[in-house]
């Protein structure tokens, strides 16, 4: 906290840290409550990987255009496994059937996860009776470190020590990053990526002021409603 802060700034900072502490306690509680009826997952996007990736970068490479490789991480708390979905710029089932409740944690990035599209996609899962209840929870901005970031750190350390010139070599590096690492490669011309935006726009209204809230709950018994 900077010196000379106003009373309003001090109060706002106190509210922020209190909210962050409560969400962290909620996070720990959810991790410990994962069982046969409730799946708990945490997701985030990694910084882009590049190809080629070598431990000692040749000086000539600074004048080349590298190939970007995307990595989306999903930590499945019930099994203590991190799934790394890897797909390149030219372009999996994580939770098995049988669960009634899903708790889904994400960071506070509106462009990636904290938006109407993600909320309405999860609302559709409850509306179509695939799950009884879904809780989408966002970490407080500035306090978003979580299990997925730990997995990304393992990958980055492994990449720093290895040379990867091809996609297969890079996939091998990601897979060997840690004992809890599970690789999911999404190749070009795949059946996984689908466009649902138009269907969601037609089926559900947009939520107003979505950035103000941290927890969203969708239930089968309240179809189409986010209380």
Q: How would you portray this structure in words?
A:
It comes from Phytophthora nicotianae P1569. This is DUF7869 domain-containing protein. InterPro entries: DUF7869. Residues 102-220 form the DUF7869 domain. With 227 residues, this protein is of the alpha/beta class. The chain has one domain (7-219). Helix content is 30%, strand content 22%. It has five helices and eight strands, in the order αβββββαβααβαβ. Strands 1, 2, 3, 4, 5, 6, 7 and 8 form an eight-stranded mixed sheet that branches. A hairpin with a 4-residue loop joins β3 (67-76) and β4. The radius of gyration is 20 Å and the shape is globular. The two termini are 35 Å apart. 22% of the residues are buried. The model has no long low-confidence stretch (mean pLDDT 82).
Task: Spell out the blueprint of helices and strands.
Layout: H1 7-32, E1 38-45, E2 49-51, E3 67-76, E4 81-88, E5 101-106, H2 116-127, E6 133-138, H3 147-161, H4 167-175, E7 181-185, H5 197-203, E8 215-219
Parallel strand pairs: 1-5, 4-7, 5-6
Antiparallel strand pairs: 1-3, 2-3, 3-4, 6-8
